[in-house]
Amino acid sequence: MLLVAQNFASQHFRRPPAAAFRSYFTFRACWNRVTPSCPCTCCFVRLALSSGALCQCGGKREAHGSMATGDNFGAAIMTQWDSAHHTSEEPTDAFGELEFAGEGWRHSPFVRLSSESPPRAVYELLTDHWAISPPNLVVSVVGGEGQEKVKSWVRDVLRQGLVRAAQSTGESVCIGEAVRDHATAASSIFQNKVVTVGVAPWGMVLNRHQLVNPQGSFPARYHAQHSSPDFCSLDKNYQAFLLVDDGTVGHRGGETAFRVRLEEYISNQRTGMWDCGNIEIPVLCMLVSGDCCTLKRVDMSLRKNTPWLVLAGSGLAADLICDVLDNLSDETTEGDSAEVSSAELREGVKDRVRRHFPSDAKLEKLVDRVISIYQNRDLITVFNGEQEGADDFDTVLLRALVKASRRLSSDASDATEYIEELKLAVAWNKVDFAKSELFSGDIQWHYSDLEDCMADALVNDKPQFVRLFVENGLNILDYLNYGRLEKLYGSLSQNTLVYSLMQQWLEERHVGDGVPTQGSLDGSSVKVPTSPVTKSCRQPGLYEVSQLLLAVLGDVCQPFYYTPLGLQRNMSARKVQKHLGKLLRSDCPYRNVLCDYPWASLFIWATLQNRRDMAIYFWEMAGESVLGALTACKILRELSKLETETETKLSMKELAQTFENLAHDVFSDCYKSDEALTFTLLVKKSKVWGGATCLQMATAADARLFFSHDGVQALLSQIWWGDIKRTTEVWKFILSFFFPPLIYSSLLCFRSVSRATRCAQAITCIDPADLSPKRPFLLHRWRQFWFAPVTSFLGNVLMYFLFLFLFAYVLLIDFSPPPPHGPSVAELVLYFWVFTLVCEEIRQIFLGDSTNLFQGLKKYIQDIWNKCDLTAILLFTLAVICRMFPGTYDFGRSVFCIDYMVFTLRLIHIFAVNKQLGPKIIIVGKMVKDVFFFLFFLGVWLMAYGVANQALIYSYDPRPNWIFRRVFYRPYLQIYGQIAVHEIDADKREEKECTDNTTLIWQGAEPCPKTDANWLVVILLSIYLLVTNILLVNLLIAMFSYTFNKVQEHSDTYWKFQRYNLIAEYHSRPCLAPPFIIISHLRLFIKRHILRVSSKKIRHFVLEISSKEESRLNTWEAVLKENLLSIQSKKKRDSDTERLKRTSTKVDGVLKQMAEIREHDRRLRLLESEVEYCSSALAWIVDSLSQSNLIKPAYPPPTRRGTRLLL
């Protein structure tokens, strides 16, 4: 018995108690058993040819008890041995785990059971105790046993075709003997997926006494030996064993009836998604070769309506059945099969049985079985592996199952007749078969017909079937509700990252809600009730999904699925837990509510699972393609940071890049179509994606390729310049700063308001009333100048240079002594200037676009330049405090000097907006990381050489400052050529006062250098300079060169991405620069906290439009997306790869047709030989009759016309 199941493993085997085994399973034996080797001890029936030494059961006379061998009923009665009458049942004495000698890495469960054991108990043993999940397919492989060698192409079919079929179904079960090559051919993944369970007669097992133990064997060590004609060893490639005992010893076929009943029981079981039990488990028997006893097995299964797949050419019984089906079917096609007499049919079958089994004595019985098999030929499918190959095996299996399903459901009408066939096609992932056979237009499919199969297609990642169902009547708007969405998330694999994250939030909710759980993170288990309410509370739901998306997407958008759950974003954690606990303990009415945006929900679900094809299909169906692709890019890149498996991490990054490319391509087509609508698309607030915009999502997703697009940069340039023309020189801005009346002159040029700039004006939060010509010209031009971000930027740059000039003036010229003599007026002005900078940093934290203080502070700290500002402010504060006291005055001045360096380095961020300097700044930042690696290697050599050099020259010098200089500082200077030769080389040392007295040295005297190992000092210096100056320095140069070449190609992309952050920063900042920015801060304080006027810049780069305009915009975007997809699809079809695939398919079709032609040619040759024989026989008859005197012909015999022509 071969089982194909997904989650089977030996470590999952649950060991039931021995009493459970002995109460459920028995074997054929009686109370007066002598030895366990012979179960037939109830009655001894002598075998005629054994001279009384053997029983008809196959056991020896000595193995039977005294009561069994006694003639208690007379010899005339006991003439035919029968298992039902001549054996009794006892509790099983052989069960447990089987360990093959030399194969201790795996234990195979086994059990000895009676041939009359109920199939239900056996099925529960397989699924409950042996941890084999309910299968999607059962393939019972029959034949191939014994000493006959299986043909090579049959092995290929079993190795490749059967494994591929199991791969298609997901979870399958196969029962049979001829599968022993599977373990050597399949990978470890498929070995867990395809579970081989062997069903064998107990009496045929060699060394079966090693398995007998009434208390169970855990494990039973089994020594496999070479099989004999009468007994066979158990095969180590099987993963479980059912040893069927019918009381016989050395007889084949004792398990046949049991296997038929087990197959019938499994075929009546139902499985399906989410425990709905709406799909029957398909069972298929496959015949490989076989002997005459196999025909009984085939006949019994066909009577149970079990379909069969016969491998033509595999030998014996299989060839007989193929011969009967092929030739007799051809003969009956000439007329109605019902009109063919049973005598003719029987005669034809008898002739073919003699041909294949010439030595069998039970001819009539075999003929009856073959006729019975022929009458159920609708359940038989013939597979010729030599012609079709192993690649087509899974399709042939599906056709065999569909053929049987069609016969059994022939009385149904409309689409209901083909539902089971569709379920089989979904299980086997045969979308081409479904399109050609089930969705060709002849069947009218309805929503209710496709609803059951949709869940299977979604969970098992079959996007082609999802697309097929949607195209043929399934409305996703009516299908997906929040209950089904929860079940989809509940079907995630337990070894995925998303499942583990959801389980963490589920545990947190249970801890806060007080709901008991099945287990905790530390592995401890807790007993829980099994009520439906508690079960629903223990399963991941929409809340866990929303928390997952909130953690992945951050505060870019509003939390998902809060509305159906009745939650609000500002609710406390305690209120959320209380509300969820009350909601989940009720009937959960939200689960019956349809999803607001089903395509987007399915798109998120597929993206979280990293399902490429499914996610791309849902992205095609969902609206707002650019924003959706950027959202998927953000989700995948965040998950890739948490993923530990390298292969999964790389696939996530590749899929994220794919979605970024899709967003870039769609946006490119939009920009070519309409510039103004494209700008609106970038900043439109989306209802589907939680109020996010494309720019915000692209920033969060680090979509640098998207930001490098000309359309994004054009919008940023319009926002940057405002109403001022881009050709305006910088010196004109500077003059306007110092002479504001120049704003109203012709020195500055302003643009006229066009359609493309109205969007940018709305984004810059300028009140439309301010742009109206009714406003005074003075106020209108004033706001046009100061509301442009470029004005704010240049003003801040100018004032920052003045700030640095004032700081340098104070440090170099006007740094006064501590109070009461200082500080000076210039220093006080500097303090006030820094205070305004602190006010601006506080404004960025509290009045940013974050929802709370914690998120605002977290977002502020994440920026590296904000860290630089914070460091400079903290150093400045420390310096001010220290300089106020005489004792720390000098230290405070030193801190001021360091702080000035930090403030000066802040200029790098300011110049990042420049197109020439910006990319170079990025390259410098990358090279700084290379310097740290260089310093690590350099530090190792400095430490090694410095300590050795110090110890060799000076044997004793306890002064810490000199140790640091000679160990680190002096070797570092030697890299640049500053070598103290007078200390290193003994021949060039100068005479100076020194001592070797340790007491004097400890008091501060100069120690005398040693000359004993001077030669070693010189050698170490040479090696040190060789490594540092040549090896390490050149390594650093090579690293710089590699970094430069690598970053230079994408430096423009990086710069454009950073340019957005700078533009967004100065767009949200007040117009005035420090120190005058304090005026803007006071104005903001009055408006926000006194007048309660909301800010228009708190959500910068966000534009809200009406529903009608949003619908038009989404339609326009969808049309352009469809055009793009059609162009990409055409390019893919025209590619060389697709052409080769189509050519290969055509060649395969031609080869199959050639194989059919050869078969027809063979038949024609056979028919020609038969005709030639008949012609010769008729000619002989004519000649004989013409030469005899029996008949006097009235006219001469006919001549053969056209003979000469033919010759």
How would you describe this protein?
With 1207 residues, the protein is mainly alpha-helical. Strands 1, 4, 5, 6, 7, 8, 9, 10, 13, 14 and 15 form an eleven-stranded mixed beta sheet that branches. Strands 2-3 form a two-stranded antiparallel sheet. It has a two-stranded antiparallel sheet with strand order 11-12. Strand 4 and strand 5 form a beta hairpin. Helix 28 (625-642) runs parallel beside helix 31. Residues 437-709 form the TRPM-like domain.
Topology:
Blueprint: E1 3-4, H1 18-24, E2 26-28, H2 66-69, H3 83-86, E3 89-91, E4 95-100, E5 108-114, H4 119-129, E6 138-143, H5 152-169, E7 172-176, H6 182-185, H7 188-193, E8 194-201, E9 217-222, E10 240-245, H8 256-267, E11 270-271, E12 279-280, E13 283-288, H9 292-303, E14 308-311, H10 316-332, H11 342-356, H12 363-375, E15 380-383, H13 385-388, H14 393-408, H15 419-428, H16 431-437, H17 447-459, H18 463-471, H19 476-479, H20 482-490, H21 497-513, H22 532-538, H23 542-553, H24 562-565, H25 573-584, H26 598-608, H27 612-621, H28 625-642, H29 646-673, H30 675-683, H31 694-700, H32 704-707, H33 710-721, H34 730-738, H35 755-763, H36 777-786, H37 789-812, H38 825-846, H39 853-862, H40 864-883, H41 889-905, H42 907-910, H43 917-953, H44 960-974, H45 981-984, H46 998-1003, H47 1014-1068, H48 1077-1090, H49 1107-1133, H50 1136-1187, H51 1203-1206
Helix pairs in contact: 4-8, 5-14, 9-12, 10-11, 11-12, 14-15, 15-17, 17-18, 21-23, 26-27, 26-28, 28-29, 28-31, 29-30, 29-49, 30-35, 33-47, 34-37, 37-38, 37-41, 37-47, 38-40, 40-41, 43-44, 43-47
